[in-house]
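Per your request, structure below.
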């Protein structure tokens, strides 16, 4: 017999209905599994949890209660996928834009508005001024030089010599091709395995093509299946971890800088001296900016022991863009490991950005819902390709992400080259104070 919302809530509070089953119970009992009612069922389940939380904490949440993000989906067999667990509503972050910025890229070609979700005053204004400098200089040139996702299981050999045996076996291209046939996910294809031996510990760094998806979950499943097959051949080995941190995922690292992860993007723009004088404060010259970038981004970063953060504030721009477009926010940690160069050349400033690990998606995860879906549609990055190699949308996302980072870094660099303007601007925009 179907239960009412009131009955479901009572059983949920008593523990008779587990929280991970709440959406499915509401969908089946209250809405008779009507597909068009899925969003309402998920909203009802979130309300039940939120009301329970309000009762237990004594804190009312009317704003959270007023937010609704339809992030539930159904599988082909009718199973409810809730997106996240224990959902009570949505968090609100101010969403703005900069641009349009002119991008002359491999995949992003034309003028693009940059969606940025942030609570930080001055970030969008700073990006906008960087955009102005880029546009007056003819636009930003971008290229993509790497496209792939990685996972790195770790196994243990019974001896040093047996570890070498596995390393040698995995150097056989025919064997790798056979292992690649174990990838059953249509959005995952094995392209290679790099091996590293540290004593009896063997790292298997697996590379995949993942189409328009960021692909990390699919790669994890494929890596598990491939590792099982390897372990059948090397049955005297033991598995230590299906992911060993050599991927490397969501951590400050150097291996991704060298080999790439997600998308590797290069960006460059030549800013004439007259544009520097027109957009930024008097006294900002190419020589001043060159000196500042070297001493700040390289001497300062090296002296502080920074790993990969040889930039001004790439993390700020990427966090705002990732939030706006539904990316995995934890990837800001690794994606922001970028390198900014600024050189006084001729009658202007040559600015280059190197972004070796932009882990982004145009499909899957948070990109499929709500405001993120709308922003990707605005960017023309919402069309899924017909094959793993037809992934223009996600490469476009990566080039636009690089444009966000370049625009903000150009502005912040030139602002710092103007003595105390950085502090003055933040006081004015964030606090409303004159000085």
């Amino acid at each position: 017999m179907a239960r009412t919302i009131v009955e479901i809530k009572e059983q949920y509070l008593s523990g008779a209905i587990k929280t991970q089953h709440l959406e499915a119970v509401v969908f089946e009992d209250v809405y008779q599994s009507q597909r068009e009612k899925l969003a309402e069922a998920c909203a009802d389940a979130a309300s039940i949890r939120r009301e329970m939380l309000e009762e237990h904490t004594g804190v009312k949440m009317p704003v959270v209660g007023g937010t609704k993000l339809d992030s539930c989906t159904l599988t082909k067999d009718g199973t409810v996928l809730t997106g996240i667990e224990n959902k009570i509503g949505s968090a609100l972050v101010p969403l703005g834009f900069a641009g349009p910025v002119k991008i002359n890229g491999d995949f992003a070609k034309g003028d693009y508005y940059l969606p940025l979700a942030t609570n930080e005053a001055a970030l969008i204004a700073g990006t906008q001024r960087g955009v102005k400098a880029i546009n007056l200089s003819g636009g930003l040139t971008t290229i993509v030089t790497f496209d792939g996702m990685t996972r790195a299981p770790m196994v243990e050999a019974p001896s040093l010599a047996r570890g070498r045996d596995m390393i040698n076996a995995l150097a056989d291209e025919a064997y790798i091709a056979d292992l690649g046939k174990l990838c059953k996910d249509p959005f995952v294809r094995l392209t290679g395995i790099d091996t590293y031996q540290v004593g009896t510990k063997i790292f298997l760094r697996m590379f995949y093509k993942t189409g328009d998806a960021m692909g990390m979950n699919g790669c994890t499943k494929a890596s598990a299946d491939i590792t099982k097959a390897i372990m059948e051949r090397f049955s005297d080995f033991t598995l230590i971890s299906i992911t060993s941190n050599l991927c490397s995922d969501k951590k400050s690292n150097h291996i991704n800088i060298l080999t790439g992860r997600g998308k590797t993007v290069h960006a460059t723009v030549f800013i004439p001296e007259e544009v520097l004088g027109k957009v930024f404060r008097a006294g900002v010259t190419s020589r001043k900016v060159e000196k500042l970038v070297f001493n700040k981004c390289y001497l300062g970063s090296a002296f502080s022991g920074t790993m990969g953060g040889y930039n001004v504030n790439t993390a700020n721009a990427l966090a705002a863009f990732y939030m706006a477009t539904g990316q995995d926010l934890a990837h800001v940690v690794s994606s922001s490991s970028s390198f900014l160069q600024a050189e006084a050349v001729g009658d202007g400033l040559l600015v280059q950005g190197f972004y070796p690990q932009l882990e982004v998606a145009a499909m899957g995860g948070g990109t499929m819902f709500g405001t993120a879906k709308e922003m990707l549609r605005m960017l023309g990055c919402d069309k899924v390709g017909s094959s793993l190699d037809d992934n223009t949308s996600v490469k476009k996302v990566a080039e636009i992400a690089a444009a966000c980072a370049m625009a903000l870094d150009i502005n912040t660099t030139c602002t710092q080259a103007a003595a105390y303007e950085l502090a003055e601007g933040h006081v004015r925009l964030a606090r409303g104070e004159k000085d």
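DSSP finds 16 helices and twelve strands in the chain.

Regards,
D.
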